[in-house]
Amino acid sequence: MAVSNIRYGENVTKEVGMDLQNLGMKNVCVMTDKNLAQLPPVRAVLNSLIRNKINFSVYDNVRVEPTDKSFMDAIEFARKGKFDAYVAVGGGSVMDTCKAANLYASSPESDLLDFVNAPIGKGKPVTVPLNPLIAVPTTSGTGSETTGIAIFDYEELNAKTGIASRAIKPTLGLIDPLHTLHMPERVIANSGFDVLCHSLESYTALPYHMRSPCPTNPIERPTYQGSNPISDVWAKHALRIVAKYLKRAVKNPDDREARFSMHLASSFAGIGFGNAGVHLCHGMSYPISGLVKTYRAKDYNVEHPIVPHGLSVVLTSPAVFSFTASMCPERHLEAAEILGADIRTAKIKDAGLVLADTLRKFLFDLNVDDGLSAVGYTTADIPALVKGTLPQERVTKLSPRSHSEDELSCLFEASMKLY
Amino acid sequence: MAVSNIRYGENVTKEVGMDLQNLGMKNVCVMTDKNLAQLPPVRAVLNSLIRNKINFSVYDNVRVEPTDKSFMDAIEFARKGKFDAYVAVGGGSVMDTCKAANLYASSPESDLLDFVNAPIGKGKPVTVPLNPLIAVPTTSGTGSETTGIAIFDYEELNAKTGIASRAIKPTLGLIDPLHTLHMPERVIANSGFDVLCHSLESYTALPYHMRSPCPTNPIERPTYQGSNPISDVWAKHALRIVAKYLKRAVKNPDDREARFSMHLASSFAGIGFGNAGVHLCHGMSYPISGLVKTYRAKDYNVEHPIVPHGLSVVLTSPAVFSFTASMCPERHLEAAEILGADIRTAKIKDAGLVLADTLRKFLFDLNVDDGLSAVGYTTADIPALVKGTLPQERVTKLSPRSHSEDELSCLFEASMKLY
């Protein structure tokens, strides 16, 4: 169980200037994206910095669903700025970009691929000290403020990959629920699906004592340790909040209780999966977003086609959990029950089907597109989707059930239509 | 939510040498008590240090229920040894003593009272950097491996007090459930009551947004923040484990599932109360143990009279929760339900009585002494017990219900007999 330091409360964002002053920081980089740059969360951060007389530069060029190129642009900015601290204000894209900027500015001689997960990158361990990074999440999905993960789209391979190291975990997450009030309907839905899958995948991930290889020295343990009694607490708690509040948060932007609860659930699930890991939904999602053709998700104000991360993750969830259930059926049934299924007469051998049906109903109620076909894929794309999944070993190897390429094909095939 | 770094698993103790080597440590102090010095947990630590060629000195003079004098003895040892790291192997007494030794060896000019909580001590903030401390708990109660708290008996005042600072929180807790197998019956019972009260008190503590004064600068926030949505998760989860496993763990030393679960529950409750705080049961417990006359608890191999901490905390719990219930009756009822009460027909106004009755039955089933009278107190002692509670403001001010001296007297009076 690695550490995550978060502070929750309305208006905690206003404290960021004092936090930086307490840390003795004098030259701060504020990272965000162009949409957010004009919105209250960024204004609250800048006002706090001004009030506390802290010099800062704003980088608002973060790409929503970042790429290696957009990472490099932020890294160059950070390297030139010689900042002593960072504040990331945004969703997962902003926080992940800021983690990368901090890492590579602290290690100016390193190439991007040096710290990227093997086999795509070299997967070198991070040994340099990083500067403080305070994360202020404005979506309710990624949990990136609690994790040592930074994901980007490696354009050459048309697939997402990332950096995973406890060293890049933010120093502090400021969880200010007021920031959720500006989120459009589909953004809250899709980011909520990310929380849903973080919870379900980390709860059903390979147990920590069955993971291999088992390094003899604790320092060699991966960031993702497999499901364990500590991450289980967070996974189930976050799942209960999703079950209770996600529909309300999506359907009514004025339902503060629901939106505030989802904001915390995002961090909770982050602490869980940031230690346990995720598996097939996430592993398969990276090519689904990476290979996007023309699909443009509603409510995302960006200039490029996009299958938002949370949507790309959840579309395969019914197929994935049907497939994995045989390895830990009790956990799959328990998850279905938390999500509202009546499991009193369910048979243990049907656990996968029960959870899959529960998820389909949940997604249907939330107007989710009808499967991969609805976001532009046909069966002809399956080989490319499988090929993009294979390098995602860091997560797919945490699947409780091992899988062949043919089985991955079947999972994509079964995800073409949901209803 | 401050951070706690724990690692759980059978035999994780064996990794301590590698952890210290990874940290570059060369001269390590191992702290324990005389009973434990001969037992497997300490042997496992020493073997690991030898295997990893780390120089160490053993201090086995920790007093069970430490005092200012026993703290000072350990501090002198630490100051002379010029250690670069510490390993504490034991229960709360050992871990707390080791935290103090690390703190005052790192601040050699400081007097003991400098960092002790006001009003007994000066309550100075800790600004010196401490050395790494790895905690290996061998009881299942204190949660001290996750907290920034060190408690001792200040003999001049006949009352317990302590040091509370995030700075003294252990670097890492190694939660090795195998260590619970050697615990005698009453030790597992009494340490389990500590978990029970950590959970109940932190769940019912004054909510974080109602605590005052509310410092404008986050650095001035106290270690104990009041109940909050994060500590609530830990409190309830730990309480569920206590409800399910404590009786089994006490009654059958071979019930590994129960003993292992209680070991984790102790850490979970620690993360909860270490952030939220405890209140009246703990505040009132300090004079109950501090003023002990001749009572010698079964299964404690010590040379002095002793009311073990967990017992001193739980004896007032029926009276305390009857008193506090009116401020958050739903939480009191919920706790009673988790502990096995049928609350379907319970009235909200009876929440305190329902929880108190549930606790009395729980304690009776576990052969707990019948109240303060059974550990040697009479009504004539009440003024002294109240006087010893008054300086425990750090915790008592987190009670959801404010209280006069007369009300404290009534709580002690009501705790003389339980059944």
Automatic annotation (TrEMBL), chains A, B:
Residues 5-177 form the Alcohol dehydrogenase iron-type/glycerol dehydrogenase GldA domain. CDD domains: HOT. One of its GO terms (molecular function) is hydroxyacid-oxoacid transhydrogenase activity. InterPro entries: ADH_Fe/GldA, ADH_Fe_C, Alcohol_dehydrogenase_Fe, HOT. Its main location: mitochondrion. It catalyses: 4-hydroxybutanoate + 2-oxoglutarate = (R)-2-hydroxyglutarate + succinate semialdehyde; (S)-3-hydroxybutanoate + 2-oxoglutarate = (R)-2-hydroxyglutarate + acetoacetate. It comes from the Eukaryota. GO terms for cellular component: mitochondrion. It is found in: Mitochondrion. This is Hydroxyacid-oxoacid transhydrogenase, mitochondrial. It comes from Pelobates cultripes. The lineage of its organism: Eukaryota, Metazoa, Chordata, Craniata, Vertebrata.
